Amino acid sequence: MQERSRGIIRNWSIARRLFVANLLFFLALTGIVGTAAVLDARQRAYDDAGRRMHAVAAAIAASPQVLEAAGSADPSARLQPYALKVMADAQADFITIMAPDRTRWTHPNPDEIGKPYIGTIEPALRGEAFTEVTAGTLGPSVRTIVPVKDGTGTVRALVAAGVTVRTVDVALSSRLAAFAVVAGALLVGGSLAAWVLGRYLRRVTRGWGPEQLAQLFAYYESVLHSVREGVLLIDTKGRAVMYNDQAAELLGLPRSETHPSPEKAPSLAELRLEGSLRALFESGRTAHDEIHLTGSRILVVNQAPAVGPPQGGRHRPAVFGHVATIRDRTEIEALGSELETMRTLSDALRAQTHEHANRLHMIVSLMELGRPDDALDFATKDLELSQRLTDDILGAVDEPVLSALLMGKAAEAHERGIELEVDSSGTPRFDRLAAQDLVTILGNLLDNAMDAAADAPSPRRVWAHVRGTAKSVEFTVRDSGHGIDPASVDDILQYGFSTKANGSGGRGVGLALVRQAVSRLGGSMAISNPGGAQFDVVLPTDPPAEGAKED
After folding, report:
1. Do 296 and 341 have their domain in common?
2. Co-location of 460 and 367 in the same domain
3. φ and ψ at 121, to 5 degrees?
4. What is the count of structural domains for the chain?
5. What is the Cα–Cα distance from 514 to 441, expressed in whole angstroms?
6. What does the H/E/C string look like for 113-180?
7. Are residues 249 and 318 both part of a single domain?
8. CA nearest 159: which of 129, 116, 114?
9. Angle at Cα 171 formed by Cα 170 and Cα 177, nearest 5°?
10. Burial class, 509, CB count within 10 angstroms (exposed 0-12 / middle 13-18 / buried 19+)
11. Residues 300 and 163 in one domain
């Protein structure tokens, strides 16, 4: 039975529990306060009756008529009518005048005259007036006994005046109605307040009980930390009220074992976020698969408002903030960059295959025309030209991956009618730099340079210079294009920004990846326009450890 009751209560909503608990509380409060008030009022009624009876008894004891009658042979004959008259005027239930030996001289019931008084008289015999509640012939009563003294202070008689407890309770019952009204108003007011608050809680908690909310929170907590995406919850005041471990890792935020209250949650201004990410989170706008670059990562961000049920009588849903989900796309972009490098090399091989096919066809045609000397001379010059290009590239860059990249770019440039010049100075050291980063930087710079040169009038040229020092490797890539608008220098390094025609896929990505790689390696990049766009990149040969740049 107890388990069944617990099960029923467990299914109650917070609003119902609050209403029942508040109702029980006010019932108990009303009972306690009412009982205390009744007891206090009863005691006050007894005290008031005692004071009134004391005044009546003292007035009778001070009357000379009583003292004179006490010394007569038949006191009852003179005092009984007097006592009955005063009893009626004073609204007392009884007035008993007695001898010091308890013999009654007066009583409301004439049959009791001459009989001993029932009650305490010892204090009165000592000359003291006192009040008590005791039972007599008329039942329990509140009575006051006052001594009657002569001129020498001798007690000649005693006067007892009182009202029965029943009479006091009847007078008290007239006050209980007011107590009942106050108690009822208190109970109704408390119940109404609990009902109003319960409706509000029912709307806010959607009728769920605390056990269900705790279970739901445990589910959300588990989901929040088990998903591989970063999750960030931001309230309407721009505070990060909750984020999981993945979000902390991707955004470089401090890990928190417990989620702070909204008042203590850090604001976006206190978190070290990239400018574009902070602008997105502060705006609260809806975002779908937006790309944002951090110092070492490429992040895909989605953002949507956190919507709850309508509040305050409004018909529109309440917005409590917004939720952002973050995915790491760095590895995918790295694989895409590698794929782009392989595509460049395959395009170069395709171009070379096409050229070699034409040259072989030329040699075969000369042989068929009976001109073997011309065929041999053509083949020799073509071999010398290819070997010289290979030697120039290998002599300029002594790194296999970069050499393959430059040979592929040279073939692509030749196919597009662009003259690519590659030279070097110093002794570049590539052993401490990842080949993937070098391909990302130099490959994207050459791609942009060749695109710019292809759109310019002849002669179309691209220069690539590699310079090595004791502490750095420097790349300079310049083209014969139209240059870069100085007002767009900062914009071209942002992800998605492009000065090229719309509709060409992959625009606005290369230079952003270059900026990210240079920043991650602790290098620097400068842009100028000396008769075309020129990019100067300086990379230290001892790049910082992972994450040092962000710190």
Report:
1. no
2. yes
3. -130, -5
4. 3
5. 5
6. CCCECCCCCHHHHCCCCEEEEEEECCEEEEEEEEEEECCCCCEEEEEEEEEEHHHHHHHHHHHHHHHH
7. yes
8. 129
9. 90
10. buried
11. no
For residue 11, tell me if it sits in a domain. Answer: no
Say if 3 falls within a structural domain.
Answer: no
Cα–chain-centroid distance for residue 361? 75
CB 239 within 8 A of CB 38: no
User: E strands within 18-75?
Assistant: none
Tokens of 250: 């991707």
Distance CA 265, CA 259 (A): 8
Angle subtended at Cα 130 by Cα 129 and Cα 132, rounded to the nearest 5 degrees: 155
Q: Are 422 and 464 in contact (CB under 8 A)?
A: yes
Please state whether the predicted TM-score (pTM) of the whole model is above 0.85.
no
Are 314 and 438 members of one domain? no
- Cis peptide bond upstream of 459, omega within 30: yes
List the pLDDT tens digit at each of the 551 positions of the chain: 455 555 555 666 666 777 777 778 877 877 787 777 777 777 777 778 788 888 888 888 888 888 888 878 888 888 888 888 888 888 888 888 888 888 888 888 888 888 888 888 888 888 888 888 777 777 777 888 989 888 788 888 998 888 887 766 665 666 667 777 777 787 787 778 777 777 777 766 666 666 666 767 677 777 777 777 888 888 888 888 878 878 887 887 777 544 555 666 777 777 777 777 888 888 888 888 887 777 667 788 899 988 766 655 556 667 778 888 888 876 666 666 667 666 766 766 676 666 667 777 777 787 878 788 877 777 776 666 555 556 555 555 666 777 777 777 877 787 788 888 888 777 777 777 777 778 888 888 888 888 888 888 888 899 988 888 878 888 899 998 888 877 766 666 665 555 555 444 444 566 777 887 888 788 888 888 888 889 999 998 876 555 444 44
Taking a C-beta distance cutoff of 8 angstroms, is the pair 484, 533 a contact?
Answer: yes
| Alpha-carbon gap, residue 414 to 409, rounded angstroms | 8
Q: Is residue 43 part of a domain?
A: yes
Look at phi and psi of residue 312 and say left if phi exceeds 0, alpha if psi is from -120 to 50, else beta.
left
Residues 46 and 86 in one domain: yes
If asked whether residues 302 and 382 sit together in one domain, one would say no
- The amino acid occupying position 383 is L
Residue type at 346 in one-letter notation: S
How many CA atoms lie within 13 Å of 361's alpha carbon, on the beta-carbon side? 6
Same domain, 350 and 481: yes
Answer yes or no: is 546 within a domain. Answer: no
Last residue of a domain, one of 328, 357, 379: 328
Instruction: Residue count of the chain, please give it.
Output: 551
- CATH classification of the domain holding 78: 3.30.450.20
Domain CATH for 364: 3.30.565.10
Which helix (H) or strand (E) is 43 found in, with range?
A: helix 14-61
Residue 92 token pair:
């007392």
- Residue 473's DSSP bridge partners are 468, 539
